[in-house]
Design goal:
2 copies of one chain form a homodimer.
Chain A: E1 5-13, H1 44-56, E2 63-64, E3 73-83, H2 90-100, E4 105-113, E5 123-134, E6 147-149, H3 155-165, E7 167-170, E8 185-196, E9 199-206, H4 213-225, H5 233-240, E10 255-262
Parallel strand pairs in A: 3-10, 5-6
Antiparallel strand pairs in A: 1-3, 1-4, 2-3, 5-9, 5-10, 7-8, 8-9
């Protein structure tokens, strides 16, 4: 009998045509909201799992780290899978899976990890990026990868507000109600705002995130950048512990899961221009 | 009676979902090739003309400068249109048309021009860009805007070959047969190759181009970059005056019509990152 081996995968995808990474479980506190119908649109996990099963020749369970929402992209999603197929060289496995994947999904890396590694439990921190196209005119090329904001945004004010989010806080105001988690206390390790030409990028790094947390942070920072709130208002919003206190939820198409750091295997950073 | 006014438009579009700028006229020498069925996919010209008619309130004839092929993009297509509606401020007209256009088409500029101006006849020169994603792995984000070439390309060799194309030559080897033009002599003003990370961009500027000429130039330069021909082979290819002498035709999705210079109105340059 062969001893099974566990592989860690880092996966990039353009989320535009997928129903997120994985079908969402219904949280206990979902409170009557109607679940979206998937309309036959597949999840990224389903597509990658099908390619992997074909290459490995047996059923598998592909466990992902982040359940990215419908339309959200990833540069470095993390997943693990177990197999008895230990004879395939990892680069051969990676290329065979990529050959079976559509053009908008890519397995970046495959590496063997100890069976104690888990894409869910070994996650130490992760970073998201949110891309805003800040110009009077929309971009005809990047519309599905950015959020178009016409009003000029004050990057300095946004940076000041972003600094107030760093640290350990109760982020109840920055979470979609019905998130199904007991505590709404989270730690933000970094929150940065950079801009080059019409492109404005917000980076948020944390140990863990609540449902829609990054998109609500972005929606709030954009309100600050547009002058509708002073930067200091963010502290008042945090203190309120009420979703209605913070800004709107930014749309999914500007959001990228940039990388996930794990306790065992170190960071999986992916360059910005990838 | 109002005197009609002529407007010059510069238009950007992502060509992915369109059947090119305009339905192609069948050249006299099409020689039995079967015309592609449009399958109900609209052209960019049809979509922009419909939006313009709605805003102006009368039938119009939108005349474009370059008949970009299916799947080819534009940062600065040029067009003109006549109207009796002279009371609409140009910026108001521009924004009203943009509000009626899909997210992947944008009117960048509108300006009144003399009735002697013609998007076709006033063209002095134009520049195309071709984007190549040169890396082992495809880009899950830019697949519809680049041509993926896995083999590392020698930029220096490509530049050397590019230089040999500059000037006035018979480009019969670099044109799709059946182009329906009498002379295959054209003047290339500039042919440059630049690279940053995995992105390689070929720029080609000329007074006029034959059918598929830029895509055949790109296909040929890529063969030189891959070491299949020495740079000097380009001169032999030109001298052959035979399509079979040059390299393959690069696919449409990496091609952008960057700008068009006109005799009357000067250049319409659009920044690379737009």
């Amino acid at each position: 009998m062969t001893t099974p081996v566990r592989y860690k995968f880092t996966i990039a995808y353009r989320g535009t045509h997928y129903h997120g990474w994985q079908k969402q479980a219904v949280p206990a506190s979902y409170e009557g909201e109607i679940l979206p119908d998937h309309d036959g649109i597949p999840t990224v996990q389903e597509i990658v799992a099908r390619a992997l099963m074909h290459v490995l020749g047996h059923p598998i369970n592909l466990v992902g780290s982040s359940r990215t929402d419908s339309g959200v992209h990833a540069k470095g999603q993390l997943a693990h899978v177990d197999t008895d197929q230990t004879q395939i060289p990892v680069e051969g496995l990676r290329q065979a899976v990529n050959a079976r994947l559509p053009a908008d999904i890519l397995v970046r890396t495959v590496e063997p990890v100890p069976m104690t590694f888990s894409a869910v439990r070994s996650t130490a921190s992760k970073r998201y990026q949110y891309a805003i196209w800040n110009a009077l005119d929309r971009s005809p090329f990047l519309g599905e990868l950015t959020w178009h904001r016409r009003q000029p945004l004050d990057v300095k004010a946004m940076r000041e507000a972003a600094r107030l989010l760093v640290g350990t806080h109760d982020f109840a105001s920055f979470a979609k109600p019905g998130h199904g988690r007991e505590s709404t206390v989270r730690t933000i390790l970094d929150c940065s705002v950079s801009s080059r030409g019409p492109m404005l990028v917000i980076g948020v790094e944390g140990k863990g995130f609540l449902w829609n947390m990054v998109r609500i942070i972005v929606g709030t920072l954009v309100e600050v950048g547009a002058g509708r709130h002073p930067p200091a208002a963010v502290s008042t919003m945090l203190a309120a512990r009420d979703r209605r206190a913070a800004g709107p939820t930014a749309p999914p198409q500007g959001l990228f899961l940039q990388w996930i750091k794990t306790r065992e295997a170190g960071a999986v950073p992916v360059p910005l221009n990838a």
